[in-house]
Amino acid sequence: MPLGLILGLGRAFRRKRTSSLDILSSKRAPRNYYKGKNCIPTGFHTRKGGYVVMQEKLPNYVVPDLTDFKLKPYVSQCPREVKTTKGTDAAK
User: Fold this and answer.
1) In which compartments does the protein localize (predicted)?
2) Nearest residue to 2 via CA among 10, 81, 82, 61
């Protein structure tokens, strides 16, 4: 009888992983817990229920000047037919 109890305890300790206990998900947390989607807030809530957007927290995209750039930003969905050369026919 004591041997079965010791084996059962050993089995229970082997099943538990310490790394899985550190992960807190919405299923393991209290009912009102919201984990979120790892988004950075762009402002803060006021006492009266409003929201103030802070300009320094908004994303700032730096786009280079493309006035004399030869390539176009658009890629056509209907490409023109291209004549094949002998090198591509031999590869088949």
Assistant:
1) Mitochondrion
2) 10
